[in-house]
Amino acid sequence: MVPLSFAGHDFLALPEAALFWPAQGALLVADLHFEKASWYARFGQFLPPHDSAATLDMIETLVARTGARAIWSLGDSFHDADGAARLDPRARARLAALTERLDWLWITGNHDVGVAQMPGGRRAVEAEVDGVWLRHEANPADPRPEISGHFHPKLRLSLRGRHVSRRCFVGSPTKLILPALGALTGGLDAGHGEIQKAVGPGAMALIPVSDRLLRFPLT
């Protein structure tokens, strides 16, 4: 876990695409896209069917590592409106156990806005915590500090003739976009115009490694 300062608060960035807020005891994650594989299967495109279990494995590992008391999921937690209903019994039981013992907040995203009932926890369109707004998609018109998801940012580099792609955070003085945690999520180049429009000037791609936070200016 690597220190990351944002909006006057101290966070820890995790290489596994999550953010821990020690003062709140909260693990922030984005774009879990539970049941993405089963959604594609309905249309004849078969992907490995264990994406929800793999994403839950990661969440449980990060909760154990950080000692988190809360999970704040920043939208698109399910891939579609019927995703929660398609969870198999084992995944549903694991998720229910997490939402029962942790303060779980579901921020509504564009993919899961139609989910009738989340499996435990509480739900909100957005939330404010100690002066920081939690949303699914960044609002460029709002100057207040904001943490969001939605874009699945990845940094793509060419190193010694090889193309390398890594999930990354994207930060500016008032915006912080989390990478997607979901097992089957793709990514949008961190330098894409839509991301830069969302975060404003001074944006950087941030990649936590074992002992430091690598920073790459986005132009």
* CATH class categorisation: Alpha Beta
CATH architecture: 4-Layer Sandwich
Extended strand count: 17
Average pLDDT metric: 91
Q: Which class best fits the helix and strand makeup?
A: alpha/beta
Overall number of domains = 1
Distance between the termini: 27 Å
How is the main sheet built? 7 strands, mixed
| Strand order within the widest beta sheet | 1-2-3-4-5-6-7
Q: Name the shape in a single word.
A: globular
How much strand content do the residues show? 25-35%
* Multimeric organization: single chain
Number of helices: 5
What fraction, in percent, of the residue positions are helical? Answer: 10-25%
pLDDT under 50 segments (min length 5)?
none
- Strand/helix succession: EEEEHHEHHEEEEEEEEEEHEE
Radius of gyration: 17 Å
- CATH topology-level name: Purple Acid Phosphatase, chain A, domain 2
Protein name: Phosphoesterase
Organism: Sphingobium scionense
Structure notes:
Strand 13 and strand 14 form a beta hairpin. This protein is of the alpha/beta class. Helices cover 21% and strands 32% of the residues. The strands form 3 sheets. A 7-stranded mixed β-sheet has the order 1-2-3-4-5-6-7, with helices on one face. A 7-stranded mixed β-sheet has the order 8-9-10-14-13-16-17, covered by helices on one side. The two termini are 27 Å apart. The mean pLDDT is 91. It has one domain: Purple Acid Phosphatase, chain A, domain 2. It has helices at residues 36-41, 51-66, 83-86, 89-101, 193-199, and strands spanning 2-6, 9-14, 18-21, 26-29, 70-73, 103-107, 122-124, 127-129, 132-134, 146-148, 153-159, 162-167, 169-171, 175-177, 188-189, 204-208, 213-217. The protein is globular. It comes from Sphingobium scionense. This is Phosphoesterase. InterPro entries: Metallo-depent_PP-like, PdeM-like, Pesterase_MJ0037-like.
